[in-house]
Design goal:
The chain is of the alpha+beta class. It folds into two domains: 2-83, Glutaredoxin; 91-191, Glutathione S-transferase Yfyf (Class Pi), Chain A, domain 2 (Up-down Bundle). The chain is 52% helix and 9% strand. The protein contains eight helices and four strands. A four-stranded mixed β-sheet has the order 2-1-3-4, with helices on one face. It is globular, with a radius of gyration of 17 Å. The structure holds glutathione. Residues 7, 10-11, 39-40, 51-54, 65-66, 102 line the site of glutathione (GSH).
């Protein structure tokens, strides 16, 4: 049986969502952030030394890293559904968009949050990341201007990865100038799988990450 370790208000929401979209059986173990530091509790550190969410356990293995977990679950637990394999015409696009969330979009947003949490202080640093954040969001905005989902072949796990990142962007006030991304997020939230994930994983409140946003 697949075990999904889920931390409240975190990117492990994606894995709950993925499992719900796939309709696979899984055991859900919930962990709570320290409300002051937002760090994960010892219970997660006992599963993996990094104590990060998401973490999964399957057939005696403990696996971390969202992108790796997504590919593992789709291919090992669901016969490749919601992924795209090497034979698919949009395999390359799938891999790119799957990796884009954690590889390109999130790093700038993370710096943006830490900058706000620590009271700023280095305009050069934030100036650099502001450009990155805007450029990356514009790139996704252009892609989604004329598409329902990021791939022409339809909904995929890449949309799940992007969806949570754009929820984070939204709470950082970064979607205001991107109407196609706001409409995309609304489409994702309207999916039954997304709704079931909120029911099972618990409500998500990312407002704790909106420091410094007016
Ligand atoms: N690159 C990792 C990042 C994992 C990560 O930073 N997870 C956050 C939750 S959004 C976490 O566990 N934070 C709690 C902590 O670091 O103590 C991934 O994509 O899974």
């Amino acid at each position: 049986m697949l075990t999904v370790h889920h931390l409240n208000n975190s990117r492990s929401q994606r894995i709950v969502w993925l499992c719900e979209e796939l309709g696979i059986e899984y055991r859900l173990v919930k962990h709570q952030r320290n409300p002051e530091t937002q760090r994960s509790p010892d219970s997660l550190g006992k599963v993996h030394p990094l104590g990060k969410a998401p973490t999964i356990e399957h057939k005696g293995q403990v696996i971390i890293e969202t992108d790796a977990i997504i590919e593992y679950i789709c291919n090992v637990c669901a016969g490749g559904r919601l992924s795209r394999g090497p034979a698919a015409p949009d395999y390359a696009q799938y891999l790119e968009w799957l990796a884009f969330s954690e590889g390109s979009l999130f790093p700038g947003l993370g710096v943006d949050l830490i900058y706000a949490w620590t009271g700023g202080g280095n305009a050069t640093l934030m100036g650099f990341y502001d450009v990155e954040i805007m450029k990356n969001h514009q790139y996704a905005e252009d892609r989604l201007q004329s598409r329902e989902y990021v791939l022409d072949s339809g909904f995929s796990a890449a949309d799940i990865n992007l969806g949570w990142t754009f929820e984070f962007s939204e709470c950082r006030g970064r979607l205001k100038t991107f109407p196609a991304l706001r409409a995309y997020l609304a489409r994702l939230r309207a999916r039954d799988g997304y709704k079931r994930a909120i029911e099972r994983g618990g409500p998500q409140d990312l407002s704790v990450f909106s420091a410094g946003v007016s």
